[in-house]
Amino acid sequence: FVGESQVIIFILVGFSDYPDFQILLFLIFLTIYVITVLGNLGMIAIIIMDTKLHTPMYFFLKHLSFVDFCYSTVVAPKLLENLLAEDRSISIKGCISQFSIGVICVVTEAVMLAVMAYDRFVAICYPLLYTVSMSPKLCILLVSITYSWGIISSIIFTYSLLVLSFCETKIINNFVCEYSVILSASCSDKHFSEMIRFIFANLNALFTLIIILTSYFLIFVTIFKMNSSSGRYKAFSTCASHLTAVSIFYGTILFLYCIPSSQNSWLLVKVGSVLYLVVIPMLNPLIYSLRNNVVKEAIRKLMYLKIISP
């Protein structure tokens, strides 16, 4: 087991195959991380300060921004450190801890996107009942369930790794501790862990995708039944930001996990991991601010108040 007296460490190879680009990659990822932090914390601040954004849609968006901030903070610091340091080692406990927190974030984000899809479904298909249906108590309950399921999933995945044995130092050809690389480093029977991964990974993906696809199918049916073109445009615009975020999130996951398993695919895996773990947390606040007129108006108002304030 992990807790045995032998010290087990992993070596995260990361992007060390490109020594001439280490500084450039460091600056790129540092810029992405700074934008991610400022974008997500800024989105949270705007939603809290502007009373017009105190609606269920932006309540969920606030928590999505918080999850993206946490997710990026789990991954980016170690990535930046490894781009400058010669010692790229990480303990097995540190690796599993990074993975465990990452699972909480990614599962919570997936379920949160499903909850936001349901919110858009109620808003467009049943607008007269929206205020009653999406009550503050229900919104808090849905967010609580979202975080709770993220934590439960993390406990299950982490337990399936903790029952494994690790015998020696392993070189990991990635910049982050993912389930597959930790699993491949084990020297014990992996059948139980592989079964857990297959069941719960597919359960989470299937469950959230069913909610999202069903919600948007009913939304599109309702929109196409509208007689007014301006009404259709307004309904589409309220979904545009969320639909863009969903497409990027699940599109990247499918890109990452549909890569054929071969020795030549490691570069694509790293690129997919960068998109999935580093870029998406940066894109979400940009998507919701650039494609959302209400958010843009709130930003302009706050900037105006900042300028004219003593």
Automatic annotation (TrEMBL):
Belongs to the G-protein coupled receptor 1 family. Residues 39-288 form the G-protein coupled receptors family 1 profile domain. InterPro entries: GPCR_Rhodpsn (IPR000276), GPCR_Rhodpsn_7TM (IPR017452), Olfact_rcpt (IPR000725). SUPFAM superfamilies: Family A G protein-coupled receptor-like. Its main location: membrane. The chain crosses the membrane at residues 23-47, 96-118, 138-162, 198-223, 235-257, 269-290. Pfam families: 7tm_4. It is a multi-pass membrane protein. GO terms for molecular function: G protein-coupled receptor activity; olfactory receptor activity. It is found in: Cell membrane; Membrane. The keyword Transmembrane applies. Keywords: Cell membrane, G-protein coupled receptor, Membrane, Olfaction, Receptor, Sensory transduction, Transducer, Transmembrane, Transmembrane helix. This is Olfactory receptor. One of its GO terms (cellular component) is plasma membrane.
